[in-house]
Here is the input.
Amino acid sequence: MGLWQRFKRIFRAGTGAALDKLEDPEMVLQQTIRDMRERVPELNNSVAQVMATERLLAKNKERLSETVVDLDSKIKAAVKMGRDDVATAYIGQLQQAQVDLQKTGMQLEHAQNASKQAMKARDNYVLNMQKRSAEAMQLISASKQAKLQEQLAQTMETFNLGDDSSTFNEMREKIDRRVAAAEAKLQLGSSNVDAQMQDIEREAQEMQLQDKLLEYKMNMGLLGGGSSSVNNQLNAGVPETGSENN
Here is the structure.
């Protein structure tokens, strides 16, 4: 294959691919429907012209038929009057009128057949146009649905790339870290309170034990300071009652 032929093939292939991208199926189908509809008036005009020819031939046939009848009457009248010369002239006219009538009759038959065929062709075209229009509308609907599916597929491809999912995962990790830190602080605060309460309870228990020990020593007479000093030790830290204030 020559270099020029290869270049032509590449050019045609590239041009065809570019045209395929430029061609919008919806626009092409809509334009096809418009073109088919625009041909209907032209077909109607053609059918009207054929029908007009048919009607004109019918009127000519009717007029020639009347002429034949009229000439026949005139011939008979001329013969009765002994005017053979006039009758002969009328006979010549009658023969020509009969020939014209025969030709017009044949033309009328052809015109009638042409009118029927034209009407049939027009009706078939209209039916075919309606069928094609319905198919085109279905194809246009399918094309729109295909576009929506393509857009959805592109959106899904974007999700599949992980752009949004990575963002969600990153935010989830940050939130989890904040929740864990808050729970740790809460737990730490609770443990400090518990430790303080335990210290207070131990100190109170220790004070109770010391008071009990002093009571035993007082009962056993082991304290030399007397009962007043013992009472002072026992009552240490105890608030005064109302009776004592009195």
User: Anything to note?
Assistant: Confidence is low (pLDDT under 50) at residues 237-246. The radius of gyration is 61 Å. The chain has two domains: 3-161, 176-236. The domain at 3-161 is CATH 1.10.287 (Helix Hairpins).
